[in-house]
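Exercise 7. Given the components listed, write out the predicted structure of the assembled complex. Treat all entries as one system.
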Amino acid sequence: MQQYDMIIIGGGIMGCSIARELSKYKLNIAVCEAAADVASGTTKANGGLIHAGDDPVPGTLKAFLNSKGCLMYPVLSEKLGFRFLKRGSMVVGFNEDDLAVLKTLLERGRLNGAPDLELISGGRIFELEPETNRKAKYALYSPHTGLVDPFEVAIAFSENAVANGVHFYLSSPVTAIQKTEDGFAVTLPKGQLNGKYLINCAGVHADDVARLAGADEFTIQARHGDLLVMDKNCGIKDVMTLYPIPKPDSKGVVLMSTVSGNILVGSTAVMKEKDDVASYREGIDELIAGANNLIEKLDIHKVIRTFAGNRAVVVGNNNDFYIRPSRKVAGLFHVAGIQSPGIASAPAVAAYVVQMLKGCGIPMEEKKNFIDTRKAPVDFSTLSTEEQDELIRKNPAYGRIVCRCECVTEGEIIDAMHRNPQPVTVDAIKRRTRAGMGRCQGGFCQQKVISIMAKELGCSPTEIELGDKGSQIIYSKLKEGC
Amino acid sequence: MNEFQFDVAVIGGGPAGMAAAIEARKNGASVALVERNPHLGGILLQCIHSGFGLKCFKQELTGPEYAQRFVNQLGETDVTVLLSTMVLQITKDKKVVCMNEKGISVLNAKAVVLAMGCRERTRGEIKIPGDRCAGVLTAGLAQHYINIDNYCPGHRFVILGSGDIGLIMARRLSLEGMKVEGVYELMPYPNGLKRNIKNCLEDFGIPLHLSTTVTRVIGEKGRVAAVEVTKVDEKLQPVDGTSKIVPCDTLLLSVGLVPENELSAGAGVKLNPRTHGAVVNDSLETSVPGIFACGNVLHVHDLADNVTVEARHAAACAAAFAKGEQKESNPAITVNCEDPIGYTVPSEIYSREKASVLFRVRRPVENARMVVTSEGSILLQGRPRSYIPSTMEELVLPSAVLQKADGEITLKIESVLGGENP
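Answer.
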C-alpha cells in the first residue's frame, strides 16, 4: 500500500496546479484522476480565457483569486513552456443601459485589483478591434485579458509536478474513502492509497467525493455550456476577446481567438445533469446568435467542432469558489465550486491552498531541488523552415506528417507518448499535439495516430480508445490471418 | 535546404495528379509529382469497388486497378516522383516548399498544377448535437479502416447522407456482414449517382429515408448507442414530433466533400465560394498566372474518369505556360449562370475554337432545357430533359457560339411548359 502525505483527488487544472505547487515542499504527493488523462473534465471544455478580474463581485474569493491569477500567467507561461497570449478584451455595450453596466464592471475591476481598465466609446472600439459589431457604442477595455489552451496549461502543471516527484494515478476513480488513524485510505480500482491529507479537486463530483469521505456538507449542480470552434480560415483571425454585457450567472456568449489561431465562441449557461456534456441544438443556435451580436457576421459553414462542458456550482454559495477545510472531517480540504474564472485563477488557487494548509498547522518544508521549469514540446508547425530542416535531419520522424490540417509530425506524437503522465487515448494525443484538431477532425489522421500509439504502447490498435472508458474505435480485425 | 528546378510541379498523386504529371511530360515539360502518402493513387486505393475506367479505358476497373494503370505509365517516364512528401507552402512565384524524411526542399517551378483532391465534411461542420463518443466517423475513414487496414469499425450502422461514398460503404458493410439500419438524407432527393442507389441500396434491401436527418447522437459508455433521426420540412428544419430513436453503434457520415484549397489560398489563388475550388479560365489556370487546378481540388467530380480528362487538359496548358507559349489574345468571355445552375467551371473563356463548360444544378429539374445567351440574345438551346444535382453536366460550346458571344455568356436551365415534345 502506497503511503502519501497528500492525496489530491481530481486531475483537472486545479488538481494539477495544486500538485505542482505542493511539489515545492518535502511531501509525498499523489493525484488520482478518474479519466484516462488529466484535464479531461471541465478543464478541457471551456474557452481558455484568462479574465482580467472585472467580472466577479468584489469581496468574493473569486474576485480575490482571479486578478491575482491573471497576473501570474505571463511568468508561468515562460517557466512551464505553455502558450499564453495577452490579447486584451472588450466588454461591448450598445446603449445607455449597457453603459451603466460597464461602469459597474469598471468599478468592480478596480476594487478587485484588475489594472489598466478603461471605458471607451465610438471609433476607439473599432481601432482596437475592427471586427467588432458596428452598432457597438461603448466598451470596457482590458489590455491584460489573456488566452491559453486550458488543457495545455494543466498538462504543463502535471508534467512539471511529475518531474518533482508527484505520482499520477490515471483511470483511477475513487470508489471508497476510509478514515484511518493517521489519515485516509483511498480505494482505487487497482488498489489502495494511504494519505495523511486529502485535497478534493473533483470538479462537478466534488460533493460525491466529500460524501465518500464522510463530509456531507455541500451539493454541486452543473451549469452546462456549449462552445464552438471555427476553422482557422473562417475569414476572421486573431480577434480581441469580445464579451457581451454579462448575465447574472455567466459572462454570456464570448467570442475569442485561441492560442492556436482558431476563433472560439462560448459558452451558454443552462443547468443540466452533472455528467451531461452533450452538445445541444438550442445551445449552438444561441452561440451563433451571440457571436453575431459581437461581430458583424460569423461564417457558420466554417464551424469545425462543437463541444460542451459543465461548471461546478456549489448550491447556496453565491456562485463563489468553495475552497476551505472540511467543516466535518479533519484533514480533508475542498477546492470545489470551481467555475469561471477557474482557469484564470488556477495558479492563485494553488498558492492560496498552500497558505491554507500552512495555516492549519501542516508542516511544510521547502525543497532545495525543486525544478521550476518545464521544456515545452516541439511544435513543428511554428518553427522556421531552417529549424524544421535541422530537426528533420536530426530525427527523420519529424519529417513524417501525420495530421495534415495542423501540420503535426510523427516525431511530435512519439515525443508526447514518452511524456509523463503518459497519454494513452487518441484525445489525449490530440490535446498534446493538435493531431485531429483541424478541419478534417481526424478523418485523415486518426488511423495513423492509432497505429503509432499501438506501436509505442506495444498493444493492438483495437485497444486504443478515443477518450472516455469504453470509447473503443475499432472493434476487431475484420478478417483474421491477414 | 535543397533546391530543384522543374518546368511543372504537380501537387498530389491521386488520379488528377498522376494524369497531369504524365500529360505534362508528354508535352515536353520536366515534371515533379509530389505526394504526401507513401503510395501513389490517393483515395482510389481504398475504392476497391468497380465502376472506374469506362470512359478512359473502355472497361470496368476497380479503384486500385485504375490507379495502377497510371502508376505503370508514370514508371515509363522520367517524371520525378516524390513520395511521403508534404507540401508546406506554394508561393505566388511558384516556389513549392516541401518536406519529407530527408528535410525541407524547394521546387522552383515554372508552372504548378494543383491536384490535392478534397476532404469529407465532418460532424462538426454540420453541427450534429449530442454526445461526443466514439463511433461517429466519415464514410471515407470507415472505408480506409475496412479496405486498407482490415479493421472492423462497427457492427450496426446508420449512414447520414446519400453521397456516393456513403452508398458504396452501405454495400461494402453489408458484404462484410455488418448491419446497415438505413441511409438518411436531409434533402428530398438522393445525392449519389442513380446507379449507386440501385446497386448499393436497393439490391441490398437498405432503406433510404429522404427529408430526414440525424438530430442527436446518443452515447453510452463512450460509444454510440443510438441516433435520433427526425424528418425535416421544406426549409430543412427538423419537424417536432417526428423524431425516432435508431439503435446503432456507428454513425457514418457521407455529407459532402470540400476541395482542399488551403495551399492554393496561401499562394493567393482566388477561390469560388460555391465550389470552394479555384476560379479558373478555360485553360484551367487560376487567378495566379502559371498555377493551374484540376480534379476534386477544383470542384468535386462524381467520376474519376472525368478527373483524368480534366487533369490532362490542365497539364497540357501548364506545360505550354512553362514553355512560354503565348496565350490566346482574345478578350475574355465571362461565364455566368442562373439558378438552378449552381456553378460553372471555367468562369472565363479565351478560346474561340471550342470550350467545355462543366456545371451542376442545385436541385432536380424535370423537363427543362439548357439555354445559352449573351447580352440577352439566345446563342444555343438544348432539348428538354431532366437534370439532377448528383450528375455533373458538360456543355461543349462550339466555335460558332464563342464567336458570337459578346463579352459574356449566361447558362440557364428553363422549364419547358406544356410538355413540349422532346
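Discussion: Chain A touches chain B through 54 residues (CB under 8 Å). DSSP finds twelve helices and 23 strands in chain A.
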